[in-house]
Design a protein that fits this description.
Layout lengths: L1 H41 L4 E8 L2 E9 L15 E2 L4 H14 L15 H9 L17 H5 L15 H4 L2 H9 L12 H14 L14 H6 L4 E4 L2 E4 L14 E2 L1 H13 L5 H7 L13 E2 L2 E6 L2 E10 L4 E8 L4 E7 L19 H10 L9
Antiparallel strand pairs: 1-2, 1-11, 3-6, 4-5, 7-8, 8-9, 9-10, 10-11
Helix pairs in contact: 1-11, 2-7, 7-9
Length: 374
């Protein structure tokens, strides 16, 4: 009888502990949801959708506000949005996978793509920030572009350069597709590669790798329009209708991006070797770490490794953030149909800790040791 009493006590203790953990997590999520709503109002965001993946499981997702300025359609975690530069994470993964399949070489010279030099010379002649230090006569490789190491002597410094990233689809179309003249206005080779390598294995049925994918017509139809905030009022922006060039192009939902995150962690889309390349700082020519590599920022903040990418498209009226904390096996995803998530991250640094949205997530689930969810 004494043994049975002890076993029952141990069972009860374990059961209560699990319940207490769940209650604690529910309280954290409720507080976090309240903080998000406050921040949404402060940033004048029309519609916001967010989710959290913990230990390879979607533990929470929710929509706030509205899809449209008339406030007739509510935002949900299944509402598709233009994710802007978060698309670069898909592109970096696709290029690494294509190289592992022996289809391309990241050491290829970007100038081997027809008319690349024309673009480079035009950009270098402008006052656009991305032109700073650009040396078109230098041997810029595809890997340099993927790692944002094209300004100055290639491979020696990091500077975010989305214009150069936008040439990546042309490289693939030249090497494996129908040629650079066929890259625009169609579901091009890069889009199809993302479908094959990522979307299909991960089961991302509410994501389109380009807006020319006829099979995902309902995703385009359901896509939330972007908005500008003018004198406190929301003004609809022209919906982007673009092929994927490299820098942007993917439309997705929070719930589908959670599937993407889980597929990455679970090995559904890439093996461990490629995943390590994605989440490890790229190197400069001298062997030092860069804050960016293959479509992801990588930084350390308060002794925690943060892997992330933001999205910001002021012309179309969208913003986004996908933030991973590998050590805690937790990921935060947030999308909006206004610019409010953006925080003016420097072009030459990784500083997600300056994001208000990142901070409320990190302070709630990562840095407050009393609030650990694991």
């Amino acid at each position: 009888m004494k043994i049975m009493t002890i076993l029952f006590a141990l069972f009860l203790q374990t059961h209560l502990s699990a319940k207490q953990q769940k209650d604690s997590l529910d309280q954290l999520l409720e507080k976090f949801s309240t903080d998000l709503k406050v921040l949404k109002k402060e940033k004048q965001i029309l519609g916001l959708t967010a989710g959290i993946v913990k230990d390879n499981e979607l533990i929470w997702s929710k929509g706030y506000g509205f899809v449209d300025s008339d406030r007739t359609v509510k935002m949900t975690a299944d509402t598709p949005l233009w994710i802007a530069s978060v698309s670069k994470t898909f592109v970096g993964l696709a290029f690494l996978k294509l190289e592992s399949e022996g289809l391309i070489k990241l050491s290829d010279q970007a100038s081997s793509t027809p008319r690349f030099n024309d673009l480079c010379e035009w950009l270098s002649s402008t006052t656009i920030p991305f032109a700073k230090g650009l040396e078109c006569e230098s041997k810029i490789t595809i890997q340099n572009i993927l790692n944002h190491q094209v300004n100055g002597v290639p491979g020696t410094q990091f500077m975010y350069n989305p214009i150069m990233y936008s040439r990546l689809s042309r490289y693939l179309e030249h090497k494996l597709g129908l040629g650079v003249d066929a890259v625009e206005g169609r579901h091009n080779y890069l889009a199809k590669a993302i479908d094959r390598i990522i979307l299909s294995p991960a089961g991302m049925s509410r994501t389109m790798s380009s807006q020319w994918d006829k099979e995902k017509a309902m995703v385009y139809f359901d896509m939330a329009g972007g908005h500008a905030v003018i004198d406190g009022n929301y003004q609809s922006k022209v919906r982007p209708e673009r092929h994927i060039a490299g820098g942007a192009g993917v439309v997705s939902t929070v719930n589908d991006l959670a599937k993407y995150d889980m597929a990455l962690s679970g090995g559904l889309v890439v093996d461990k070797e490629i995943r390590n390349k994605l989440f490890t700082p790229a190197k400069f020519n001298n062997g030092d770490d860069s804050p960016y590599g293959f479509g992801w920022y990588v930084q350390t903040h308060k002794n925690k490794k943060l892997v992330w990418h933001s999205g910001w498209d002021p012309e179309a009226g969208y913003s986004a953030l996908l933030l991973k904390v590998p050590e805690e096996n937790i990921t935060f995803i947030v999308l909006a149909n206004t610019e409010g998530i953006w925080w003016n991250n420097a072009l030459d640094k990784a500083e997600v800790h300056k994001s208000d949205f990142a901070n409320i997530f990190l302070d709630t689930f990562v840095f407050d040791q009393k609030n650990q969810t694991n």
